[in-house]
C-alpha cells in the first residue's frame, strides 16, 4: 500500500475519536488534509462539530469541505486536535513543521484537551532527528539567530547545520505568521527536552517543531494494519 493510502487510513481511524459537538483543532499537511476531507463527509451527513484550522491552507480545505470554522479567540478551549507529524518516537515526542505550520499547530495543540497524531509508519522512529527540525524565527537578524540556533543544538549534544528554508523560486519561505523557517539538520536528537529548552531561549526564535508532552495518542498506519500508541 502506498504512503498516501496509509495516511488516509490513519485519518479515517481518527474519526472514531470525534464526537458530536466537539471543538476540533484541524492540523496541516497531506495526512491532516485527508482527515479534513473525511470529516467534511461526516459533517455533510449531519455531524455537528466546529473546527479551528492550524493554517490558511487548512482553513481553505475545511471551508471547501463544509466544516464550520471558529478561531481560538472565539473558542479558546478545544476538545481534540488531529494533526500529522514528520517524526514520532516512543514516548510520543514528535517533530512537526515540515509544512511550515508549526507555530499555529503548537498553539492549537496546547489549547486542546487531547492531541492525536495521524501518520503512516515511515514517520515512526526510534529516536527523533533524522528529519531536519523546523525552527520558526523572526526575519529580523536571521543571520545571528541561525548561528545561535546552531550553538544551542551543539550545547544540547546534537551539533548540526541550520538552513533557511526557501521556496522553489529561491525566496525565503514565509509562514502564515510572517516568519522564516530554519531547518536544523541534526541526524539524531539524544535529548529532545534539552534541545527544546535551549532553542526556546534563543532571541529571534518564535517556536520550534519539537512537540514534547503534547501528543496523547498516535495512530500509525502500516502495511500490517493500524497501531495505536498512547
Ligand atoms: C506541517 C506539519 C505536518 O503535519 C507534517 O509536516 C506532516 O505532513 P504530512 O502529513 O504531509 O506528511 O507539521 O507543519
TrEMBL record:
Binding site for substrate: 28-31, 83-86, 96-99, 123
UniProt catalytic activity: aldehydo-D-ribose 5-phosphate = D-ribulose 5-phosphate
Record flagged with keyword Isomerase: yes
Entry annotation: catalytic residues: 105
UniProt keyword Isomerase present: yes
Pfam families tied to this protein: Rib_5-P_isom_A
Signal peptide extent: none
Pathways involved: Carbohydrate degradation; pentose phosphate pathway; D-ribose 5-phosphate from D-ribulose 5-phosphate (non-oxidative stage): step 1/1
Family, as annotated: Belongs to the ribose 5-phosphate isomerase family.
PANTHER family reported for this sequence: RIBOSE-5-PHOSPHATE ISOMERASE 3, CHLOROPLASTIC-RELATED
Subunit structure: Homodimer.
Function recorded in the entry: Catalyzes the reversible conversion of ribose-5-phosphate to ribulose 5-phosphate.
Name of the protein in question: Ribose-5-phosphate isomerase A
Organism this protein belongs to: Rhodoplanes tepidamans
Gene behind this protein: rpiA
